[in-house]
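User: Show me a protein chain along with its predicted structure.
Assistant: Here is one chain, sequence first, then structure tokens.
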Amino acid sequence: MRALMELHAHIGSVDPAAAARMIERLLARTRQLPDHPLSGRTVPDYRRADLRELLERPYWIIDRVSPGQIEIITIKHYRQRLPHQPEALARSTDAN
């Protein structure tokens, strides 16, 4: 949620309506996860089966899939670099 709030604040500072639309698109994209937890591809940078990414242009939604749980780790703009270690994803919530 923190990443969504930061993203909304960033986009909303320029265009509040666009921020609301982007957040709704991202939320809509994540609604597929309960029925299709493996619908995203594995994150190529990490090659771990439990880390998946969904693309909702221009953002990546990175989640962790474990038995009985799907956790959204972060949301990144496609131009942002991912940290070298996947453990750092949860600490890097800057979504703009």
